[in-house]
C-alpha cells in the first residue's frame, strides 16, 4: 500500500453515515486502489478487490447499472463530488458518494457506499441504540450517553480501543473526554451541542484519543440523539471507529503528492502553491517582499555519471539537509527535480539581506560532501528574483530566478546574480532567435560574402575569406555577430555550417574554373567547435570535397585560437584528420587566446591569422611591432604563414610588410562583398594583382 501512495492513491478507512456504510478508493478510471474493511467483508477479500473495476463489484459487467456507475466515476474524475443512487446486484439499492481527493486533484476518488431505501427506516422507539448497532462494525467501540444523568456506558470493545480492561472503566464522561486531544475536544463539544440542539441529523466528528500506551489514535465518532416530547435531547449513542491507518495513509498521500520522494523537500507543486500565496501577498499587502533563489549545482552530472546514482542520490539528500538547516521557519526549500533546488525567503526585507544570505549559503554548500566515504566538492550558482509586487504568476517568478541562475552560471562558478528585466528581454530574444534560426536554415536564407586576402609580397589576390550573412526577410542583411553565437549555442551551427561549406566549395570551384591563372586562389571558411566535434565531421568533409571536386589544398578552415587551445585534446585529432584530407588549417584571432607561442608547434596549423586588435593598434602600441615580428619569425620557423586581419590604413600595410607578414586582409583593400560583387572585383583585377603600394595610397 505504501508503494501505491507515491503513485497518488492510497487507503481510506470506512466512513459511513448510516447503516453499513462502506468506502473505497478508486483511481480516475474507476479501478479499486483500496477497499475499506466493510466493503471487503461484504464483497470479498481485499486482494481480490484491488485492481478490479469498481462498477463490476456492485453490478454485472456491461449492465446499464455498471455503465451508470462508470459514468458517474468519470464525472467525478473531472473534479466534482457526485451522489447517485443505484440498484446494485451485490448490495441492493445503494447510494454512492464520490469525491475527488482534495489532496491529489483528480488522481484519486473516494467512494462511500450507503444502503438506501427501506433498510434505512428506523424504529423511533430506540433510534439511537439501533443506530449505534447499525453503525457498528466488528471493531468499533460503542458508547451510550445518558444526557440526563450524564453517564456514559462504554462497550468492552470501546475499552480495548484505548488499551483498557473493560472492568477498569467507569461510566464517567471523563473516561472519554480526558483522553481526547485538547484541540479536538472543543470540536466534539461543539458538534455534540449542534446535534443535540437538532441542528444536525447525526453526530459525526474525528478526534485523536489517547491510548494507554501514550500514543494518540485517530477515531471517527458517530452518534445519534434521542429527544423527549419537549424536544430535549436525553440520550446520545453511537460508535467509535479507529481511523488511524486511514489518517496515516492520507498523510502519506498528501506527503507524496507535495513532496519530493528522495529528499523529502516540498516539490514543484507545493512550491508553486506556496509561491502563489506569496505573489498574492506581495501584490495586496503594502510592501511585503519575499525572494526566490534558484540553485544549480556544478558537478552533479559528473558525480552521478562517475560515481553512480546511489552516490548522486546521497549528494542530493545532503544538499537538501544543508538547505533545510540554512533557512528560517517561514522560508521554504524545495526541489524541482534533478539538481535544481529553490529557496523562498519570506520575508525578505532588502536585496542586501538576500544577497548576504546567498553568499553565506554558497559558503555552506561549497563545504566538502562526504558521500559514503567519498569526499567531493561542489558549488552552486544562484539566481535571485525579488517578489516585490511586480508578479502575477508564480511561474514568472520561477522563470526569472531561473534566468538569473543561467546568467550566474555563465558568469563563472559559484556566483549569484539578481534578475533584471534586461535579462528577460535577452532570454526572450534568444528564444525567438533560436526558432527563427532553425527556420532560416531550412529556408536557406544564408549567404556568404567574400573578403579578399592579399599577398604582401606579390600583391596578388591569394584568396577570400567566406563570411556568413543572414538575408533576413524583414530585417535585411544581418551580420554574423547577430546569429553565429546563438547558432553555436543551440547547435544550429552544425546544419548551417554544412550549408555554408557547400556554398563555399561551389564558389571555389566556379572561380578556379573561371580564373585558372590565379593559381593561389583559396577560399577560407570559419568553423565552430560545435561543428568539429561532430563524429561525422571529417567523413562529411571528405565527401563534400569529392562530390564538388575541388582541390582540398585550396580550401582552408579557420578555427579560433581559443577553440583549439581550450579543448586541445579533442580538437587536435580532428585537425589531424582534416590535414589528412588535405585541406589547409588556419588559427583565427591569434593573440586573443591563452596560447603561448611555445606551444604553437603542438597543432597542425598552416596559417596564423593575427587578430585585428593588434593590427589596429600596431602604430599606437609601442610593443606591438616587436610582438608581431616575434610571431612572424616563430611562425616562419614552424613553416606557417602569417596573415594580418583588419587592415584599414596604408601605414598598417607598410608596417606589416616591413615586419615580413605574408598576407593581409581588411577594409583597406576591400570589405566583404556579395558573390556578384566579388566576381566583379576579380574581373576588375584580371591579373589578380592589386596595384596599391604604400607609396601610392
Ligand atoms: P573573423 O573570422 O575574425 O572574421 C573577420 C571579421 O573581421 C569579419 O567580420 C570581417 O568583416 C571583419 N573585418 C575585415 N576587415 C576588417 C577591417 O579592416 N576592420 C574591421 N573593423 N573589421 C574587419 P564579420 O563578417 O562580421 O564576422 C565576424 C565573425 O563571425 C568572424 O570573425 C567569425 O568569427 C564569425 N563568422 C563569420 N562567418 C562565419 C561562419 O561561416 N562560420 C562561423 N563559425 N563563424 C563565422
Ligand atoms: Ca576568420
Ligand atoms: Ca579573425
Largest sheet: 8 strands, mixed, barrel
Instruction: Flag low-confidence runs.
Output: 1-20, 102-106, 118-125
Structural class: alpha+beta
Mean pLDDT: 86
Domain count: the total is 4
If strands are numbered along the chain, what order do they take across the biggest sheet? 18-19-21-22-23-24-25-26
3D shape: elongated
Architecture of the largest domain, according to CATH? Alpha-Beta Barrel
Q: Please name the fourth-level CATH homologous superfamily of the largest domain.
A: EAL domain
How many strand elements?
Answer: 26
State the separation between the terminal residues, measured CA to CA: 89 Å
Tell me the helix content.
40-55%
Walkthrough of the structure:
By secondary structure, the protein is α+β, with helices and mostly antiparallel strands. It folds into four domains: 7-119, 2-Layer Sandwich (Beta-Lactamase); 129-249, Beta-Lactamase; 260-419, Reverse transcriptase/Diguanylate cyclase domain (Alpha-Beta Plaits); 432-684, Alpha-Beta Barrel (TIM Barrel), CATH 3.20.20. Helices cover 41% and strands 23% of the residues. Strand 8 (203-210) and strand 9 (216-227) form a beta hairpin. The longest helix has 23 residues, at 492-514. Residues 1-20, 102-106 and 118-125 have low confidence and may be disordered. Bound molecules: ligand C2E and calcium ion (CA) (2 copies). One calcium ion (CA) is lined by residues 588-589, 609, 611, 645. One calcium ion (CA) binds at residues 588-589, 609, 611, 645.
Amino acid at each position: 500500500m505504501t508503494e501505491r501512495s507515491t503513485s497518488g492513491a492510497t487507503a481510506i478507512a470506512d466512513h459511513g453515515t448510516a447503516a453499513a456504510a462502506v468506502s473505497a478508493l478508486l483511481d480516475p478510471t474507476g479501478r479499486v486502489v483500496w477497499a475499506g474493511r466493510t466493503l471487503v467483508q461484504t464483497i470479498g477479500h481485499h486482494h481480490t478487490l484491488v485492481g478490479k473495476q469498481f462498477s463490476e463489484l456492485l453490478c454485472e459487467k456491461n449492465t446499464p447499472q455498471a455503465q451508470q456507475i462508470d459514468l458517474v466515476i468519470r464525472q467525478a474524475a473531472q473534479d466534482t463530488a457526485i451522489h447517485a443512487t443505484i440498484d446494485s446486484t451485490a448490495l441492493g439499492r445503494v447510494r454512492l458518494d464520490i469525491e475527488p481527493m482534495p489532496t491529489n486533484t483528480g488522481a484519486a476518488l473516494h467512494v462511500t457506499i450507503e444502503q438506501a431505501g427501506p433498510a434505512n427506516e428506523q424504529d423511533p422507539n430506540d433510534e439511537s441504540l439501533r443506530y449505534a448497532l447499525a453503525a457498528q462494525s466488528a471493531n468499533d467501540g460503542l458508547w451510550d450517553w445518558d444526557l440526563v444523568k450524564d453517564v456514559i456506558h462504554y462497550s468492552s470493545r470501546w475499552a480495548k480501543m484505548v488499551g483498557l480492561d473493560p472492568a477498569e472503566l467507569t461510566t464517567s464522561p471523563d473516561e472519554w473526554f480526558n483522553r481526547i486531544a485538547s484541540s479536538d475536544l472543543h470540536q466534539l463539544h461543539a458538534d455534540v451541542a449542534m446535534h443535540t440542539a437538532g441542528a444536525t441529523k447525526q453526530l459525526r466528528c474525528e478526534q485523536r484519543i489517547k491510548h494507554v500506551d501514550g500514543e494518540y489514535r485517530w477515531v471517527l465518532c458517530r452518534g445519534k440523539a434521542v429527544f423527549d416530547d419537549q424536544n430535549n435531547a436525553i440520550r446520545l449513542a453511537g460508535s467509535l471507529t479507529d481511523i488511524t491507518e486511514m489518517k496515516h495513509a492520507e498523510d502519506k498521500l498528501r506527503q507524496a503528492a507535495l513532496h519530493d520522494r528522495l529528499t523529502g523537500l516540498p516539490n514543484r507543486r507545493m512550491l508553486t502553491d506556496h509561491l502563489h500565496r506569496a505573489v498574492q501577498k506581495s501584490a495586496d499587502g503594502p510592501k511585503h517582499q519575499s525572494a526566490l533563489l534558484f540553485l544549480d549545482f556544478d558537478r552533479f552530472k559528473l558525480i552521478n555519471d562517475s560515481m553512480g546514482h546511489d552516490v548522486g542520490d546521497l549528494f542530493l539528500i545532503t544538499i537538501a539537509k544543508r538547505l533545510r538547516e540554512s533557512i528560517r521557519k517561514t522560508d521554504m526549500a524545495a526541489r524541482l527535480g534533478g539538481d535544481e533546488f529553490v529557496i523562498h525567503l519570506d520575508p525578505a526585507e532588502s536585496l542586501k539581506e538576500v544577497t548576504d544570505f546567498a553568499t553565506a549559503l554558497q559558503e555552506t554548500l561549497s563545504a566538502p560532501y562526504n558521500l559514503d566515504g567519498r569526499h567531493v566538492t561542489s558549488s552552486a550558482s544562484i539566481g535571485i528574483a525579488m517578489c516585490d509586487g511586480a508578479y502575477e504568476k508564480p511561474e514568472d517568478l520561477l522563470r526569472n530566478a531561473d534566468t538569473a541562475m543561467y546568467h550566474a552560471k555563465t558568469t563563472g562558478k559559484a556566483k549569484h546574480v539578481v534578475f533584471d528585466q534586461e535579462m528577460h528581454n535577452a532570454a526572450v530574444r534568444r528564444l525567438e532567435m533560436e526558432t527563427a534560426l532553425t527556420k532560416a536554415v531550412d529556408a536557406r536564407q544564408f549567404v556568404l560574402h567574400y573578403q579578399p586576402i592579399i599577398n604582401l609580397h606579390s600583391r596578388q589576390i591569394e584568396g577570400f575569406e567566406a563570411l556568413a550573412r543572414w538575408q533576413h526577410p524583414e530585417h535585411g542583411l544581418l551580420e554574423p555577430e547577430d546569429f553565429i553565437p546563438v547558432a553555436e549555442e543551440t547547435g544550429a551551427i552544425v546544419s548551417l555550417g554544412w550549408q555554408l561549406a557547400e556554398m563555399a566549395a561551389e564558389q571555389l570551384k566556379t572561380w578556379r574554373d573561371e580564373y585558372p591563372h590565379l593559381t593561389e586562389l583559396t577560399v577560407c571558411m570559419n568553423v565552430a567547435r560545435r561543428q568539429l566535434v561532430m563524429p561525422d565531421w571529417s567523413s562529411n568533409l571528405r565527401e563534400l570535397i569529392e562530390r564538388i571536386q575541388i582541390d582540398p589544398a585550396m580550401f582552408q578552415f579557420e578555427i579560433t585560437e581559443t577553440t583549439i587551445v581550450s579543448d586541445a585534446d579533442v580538437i587536435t585529432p580532428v585537425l589531424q584528420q582534416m590535414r589528412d584530407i588535405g585541406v589547409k588549417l588556419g588559427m583565427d584571432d591569434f593573440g586573443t587566446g591563452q596560447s603561448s607561442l611555445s606551444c604553437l608547434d603542438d597543432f597542425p596549423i598552416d596559417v596564423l591569422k593575427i587578430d585585428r586588435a593588434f593590427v589596429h593598434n600596431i602604430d599606437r602600441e609601442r610593443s606591438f611591432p616587436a610582438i608581431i615580428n616575434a610571431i612572424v619569425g616563430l611562425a616562419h620557423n614552424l613553416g606557417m604563414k602569417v596573415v594580418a586581419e583588419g587592415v584599414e590604413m596604408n601605414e598598417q600595410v607598410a608596417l606589416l610588410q616591413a615586419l615580413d607578414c605574408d598576407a593581409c586582409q581588411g577594409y583597406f583593400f576591400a570589405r566583404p562583398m556579395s558573390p556578384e560583387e566579388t566576381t566583379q572585383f576579380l574581373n576588375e583585377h584580371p591579373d589578380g594583382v592589386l596595384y596599391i603600394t604604400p607609396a601610392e595610397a
